[in-house]
Amino acid sequence: MQIPQLRAFCAVAQSGSIxxxxxxxxxxxxxxxxxxxxxxxxxxxxxxxxxxxxxSLSPAGRQLxxxxxxxxxxxxxxRALMRDEExxxxxxxxALDVVLVDYMPRVIGYMRQRHRGIHLNVRxxxxxxxxxxxxxxxxxxxxxxxxxxSKALRSRIAFVDEMLLVTDPGHRDVVxxxxxxxxxxxxxxxxxxxxxxxxxxxxxxxRSDLPVIEIESYHTMLACVSAGMGAAWMLxxxxxxxxxxxxxxxxxxxxxxxxxxxxxxxxxxxxxxxELFMDASTTV
Length: 284
Hints:
CATH class of the largest domain: Alpha Beta
Strand content: 15-25%
CATH superfamily of the largest domain: Periplasmic binding protein-like II
CATH architecture of the largest domain: 3-Layer(aba) Sandwich
CATH topology of the largest domain: D-Maltodextrin-Binding Protein, domain 2
Radius of gyration: 24 Å
Helix content: 40-55%
Order of helices and strands: HHHEEHEHHEHEEEHEHEHEEH
Number of helices: 11
């Protein structure tokens, strides 16, 4: 198994044809064909399903693709390091708003210091949109609530947070939904994963009748709670950044509040720049 063979394999897997891969690699089609055949002989596996002019990955090919890309990324990164070259290219990251407030600024700062050649694009989207855009390839990597259950996607935990219920200071301790003594709740729209979880928590205690006012601002939510108008839910990392967070009462929801934020990427399409981004996230 040789690097040129893996490079040819990845090019064909991404383009779906020998001729397109040959143009991308600036090779003649026959050399691409030979390298694919050599790789299949070496691994004793059929890597592609050949249908007319289109080539799609076989089960063995899908299994190999992510490993092959990692090998090539490592090879290219090592070559750049030895030549004192700057890693370049682009990286499009999607993230929940809660990630952008406290976590992402530190990661972006690290990336700008260590990898200035990478053009970083960051998009704020709801959890359902993030998963959909990872699946269709419009995002390289995303940070959303996980874990993710999908054969087409892969995920890895980034950090753990806690979703809290926030009330006015005089409210009694809240352990179950039946302890709530407010007329309304404040939260985000229905396609927010945290909203799903709070709806389930309310239903578990027979309080599904409690109206939820959709507010797209944590500052506004907290102001309403401080005024004694109702209760809200938000992550601990968000609450601590808001002015007036000491003027409300935060209630832990136990296991119901545990929140795992995961890196999510499309299976077989984890780029070198995305790996550097994840590495940066574990460093800061």
